[in-house]
Amino acid sequence: MTTATRRFAQLTATVAVVAAALLGSSGMAAADEWPPVPTEPSPVAPFDTQNFLTPTDLDYWNPFVSANRLTSPFGTANRIVCTGFHGVLLDCWQADQNGQPHKLVKLSMNFPGSLGATLPGGGPGHFVYPGFIPGI
Description:
- Residues 1-31 form the signal peptide.
- With 136 residues, the protein is an alpha+beta fold.
- It contains 1 helix and 7 strands, in the order H-E-E-E-E-E-E-E.
- It has one helix spanning 3-27; strands spanning 47-48, 69-71, 80-85, 88-95, 101-103, 105-106, 126-128.
- The strands form 2 sheets. A 4-stranded antiparallel β-sheet has the order 1-3-4-5, with no helix packed on it. Strands 2-7-6 form a 3-stranded mixed β-sheet, with no helix packed on it.
- The protein starts with a helix and ends in an 8-residue tail after the last strand.
């Protein structure tokens, strides 16, 4: 074998090993779980809710409406559990089509809403189902 062929074979083998390691480790990631229910009364106890604006609601697109928004392939049809404090949602989880929970990603701002950031606790939030890209 020539030196160039040997180097190409080593590079190909290295890339294959790295790709297998990356793919194998991503499949072993721990699944999300529903938030635990505290044993004692707590102001941040989890609760079921469907009180979100979704892209099918006209107010979702209105920047002057200060309400929680949800961007998800399931809308509010699947179970949603959130924790909150004084009316401000902290974290939310939504069930997939099999009933398995997935922690929703809270955006840093309530886009397309433009108001509410000055409200106590930062006001309403915008939650997105993990990995969901609308329109694709």
